[in-house]
Structures are given as structure tokens and as C-alpha cells.
Amino acid sequence: MGARNADIEVLGAEVSFREVPFAAPLVLSSGPITGLTEAVAEVVVRNRRGTTERGTGSVLLSYPWAYGARAPRGEDRDAVLRSAVEQLAAELPDLGGPADPLRLGGSLTEAARRLASRQDLPMLAALVCAAPLDAAVHDGWGKALGEPVYQCYTAEHLGADLSHYLGPAFAGRFPGHYLRSTPLPRLPVQHVVGVGDPLTPDEAEGSAVPLTEWVVKDGVRCFKIKLSGKDPVADAARINDVHRVVATAPAPVRLSLDPNEGCPDPGRLAAVLHALAELNPVAREAVRYAEQPFPRESAGDLPGLPELTEQLPVLLDEALLDVAGLDALAAAGWSGVTVKTGRGHTQSLLAYCWARQHGRFVALADLTNVGAALLHSAAMASWLHCDAPAFECNSRQYSPAGNVGTAGALVVRGGELDLAPLPREGIR
């Protein structure tokens, strides 16, 4: 397909940073997160009609998630990621155009890949650094069209169909084929229970809010339980304890498991499920899926994974680095994907389309998004058809001070996030 009037060129890009302290540590299998840096990108774009607009994007530079087990000793990872964002911003105007944002996003991903190779960065870290710029490009494109981007991913506005990115099975298909015609007005909230988070008032220290209070305050009924992955019996007991505490939540209670690469192999997670089933069959039945239990490096070679996924969907997160590898990862036994804007709007949208076309499981995930990043993540989620539609929104737990303005107006009532404050322009 040829050029479209909607095609844009990037005239300039700027980035800034702000510190986002956490009110309480978010504890993963790799350790606690007590604060992160938000990277904010602003681009100026112009389409073929001559319309000029500014697009914005932001993401938290979550180096524990981005680096995983590759964390180098003695290196200031936050400083490395800030520098990488600045380098990609300087390169963005020279990556080609005019083009649609999917093509520009693909070029930005390749630039991130080159940067990762030059600086020995994990590819996921490079994608995180590209993510605010990628989001800003899509945002500017939509604003120049005067519509939410999610209504513009069609043959009318895009220069190529999805076969250009995902292979011949997608000939004649565009992202719009897989999106809702109108966005959801509310999203069920998925509450995160970190490793060691207090469940009851007796366990809470200082200003920490126990899980029982969150259940009463927000009416949440969907819970993501972070696991250490070290001891199947201890992990099963933790899941059981959480289920016992939230059993008073409005039914049905839904659980998901997130070891953040903490399980060495499928056998470890299978042992957790077996121990949980013996301990509390009702709690086992409440578990809907597991998110990236295993190290990203071993994602393509996990004996026993197909057998495990007969018991429970197991979804890609940290190992989702390139949509070109999705077919191979599916063949290795993975059940589906988590959609997370922190790895990039383009990559998230393409992975979602791939999963929907192939009937794979889709869930939403988060990166403790705050401010404009939270608005972006919530807006995107509202346009998707997900098998597990609960929206993580964990900044309300760990970094509420980062949500000012419109983001601060997003309120949880009866376990659902009311999206009425969203501007519904650009990516938000």
C-alpha cells in the first residue's frame, strides 16, 4: 500500500526525567523497588497534510524488570537507561518518514536493538528506553488526525497491513480488526500482592496498608500474587493465605501468579500448583494464569512447558522481546502474551493482534505506570479484547503521589477503575 496523508515525519524529540518515590516497596522475586525514574518524551510531528502536532509519551525506567538476572554489579542502571533514552531521542528524527507510526515504531525498535548491541544492554531494557518515544509518535499521529489512535489503525490511515509485521496470515488485516469499536468505560482492577506485602493489620508496619484494607476500600476482587519461585510449598502457602484473606471480596475472586522469572523451570511451577491443590482446591481453581514464571533466556527451550500449560495458561512478559519470535515461542508451549505499554506501544499492539488472530490468551500488565503513562496504559486497555481484562494499575498502591492532574482523577469504585476522566485523544 502506498503513502497516506496521515503519514508523519518527526521534526524533533525532547526528553525529561522526574523521580517517582514509592510510598511502599514493591517486592519482586529479584528484590524490592523503592523508587524509579519516569522518562517523559515529547515529539513534534507533521503529516502530509501539513498538520503539525506535539505528541507525548512516558514510562517508568523499571531497571529491575528490564535487566532481570543480568543486573551488573556497581553500575548505575538508572543513569544508563536515562542516557539510552536521550540517545534514542536524538536518533528518532533521522529514522525515516513520512510514515505511519507502526513503521516508525519498527524503525525505533531496530534503533533500540542496535543500541542494546553497542552498549551490551538487555534487549528489554532498550525497549523500555524506546517506549516513551514510541508512545509519543503514536500520540502525535493521532492528534494530527484529530482522533483517538485506536480508531485510526485502519487501511485508510496505515501504509501497510499487518502481514508486513506479522507474516502472510495477516494479509488484509489491520489492528483495527482486533480492537473494540467503542472503548470500555470501566476496567476491573487487578490488585498486586508483592512478596512480603502485609495481608492483615497485624502484619503491617509503619504506613504499610494491609491487603484487608484495600479489599474494603476499593472492593477489588482480582489479585496478582508475586511469588519468589524458590520454595513450592512456601509459594503455595502464600497463595492460600492471600485467598483466605480476600475470600470476603465480591465473588468471584480471581488470582494470577507472577514469579517474575523466579521459577527455574516448568517443574517448579507445577509443584506450586500441586501443593496448592492439596492445600486448598478452591484457591487453586481461582488461579487463572501465570505470568513469565521462567527466566527470559530459557523461554524457547523449556521441557515440560506444554504439559504445564494444559493445567494453566502461562504467558510471556519479560521474554516478549520481538514479535517476530512469537510463532516459535508459541511452538515451545507458551499460551499467550501480556500487553504492557512499558515495552512499547508498537510492540504491544502487534503482539496483541498476533495473539487475537491465533486464539492465544491475552492479559493486561503494568509497570507501575503513573501520570500520563497511566492514562496511556488505561486507555489502550479499554480498547482491547482480553481473556483476563483486569487492569493492574498498581501505582495507586506503591506510587500514588506520581498521579497528579487527570491521572489523579481516576478512581476505583467497586473494584473497577472509572475511565470517565480520560481525554480520549491521541493515545489517551
Provide structural commentary:
The chain is of the alpha/beta class. The chain folds into 2 domains: 8-176, Enolase-like, domain 1, CATH 3.30.390; 181-418, Alpha-Beta Barrel (TIM Barrel). It has 14 helices and 13 strands. It has helices spanning 63-67, 77-91, 101-119, 123-145, 163-166, 211-218, 232-246, 266-279, 281-286, 305-309, 326-331, 345-357, 371-382, 395-398, and strands spanning 8-28, 31-47, 52-60, 186-188, 190-193, 222-226, 254-258, 287-291, 314-316, 336-339, 361-364, 411-413, 416-418. A hairpin with a 2-residue loop joins strand 1 (8-28) and strand 2. The radius of gyration is 21 Å and the shape is globular.
Secondary structure class reads: alpha/beta
Number of helices: 14
First-residue to last-residue Cα separation:
28 Å
CATH third-tier fold name of the largest domain = TIM Barrel
Can you identify the CATH superfamily of the largest domain?
A: Enolase-like C-terminal domain
Q: Mind telling me the C-alpha Rg? A: 21 Å
Compute the average pLDDT.
96
Helix content: 25-40%
> Which strand order spans the largest sheet, edge to edge or round the barrel?
5-6-7-8-9-10-11
Low-confidence runs: none
How many beta-strand runs? 13
Major sheet size, sense and barrel closure = 7 strands, parallel
How much of the residues is beta strand, in percent? 15-25%
The backbone outline, from C-alpha atoms, is: globular
Specify the CATH architecture of the largest domain: Alpha-Beta Barrel
The helix/strand series, from N terminus to C terminus, equals: EEEHHHHHEEHEHEHHEHEHEHEHHEE
CATH class of the largest domain: Alpha Beta
As for the number of domains, it is 2
Family: Belongs to the mandelate racemase/muconate lactonizing enzyme family.
Protein name: Mandelate racemase/muconate lactonizing enzyme C-terminal domain-containing protein
Organism: Amycolatopsis taiwanensis
Pfam family, one: MR_MLE_C
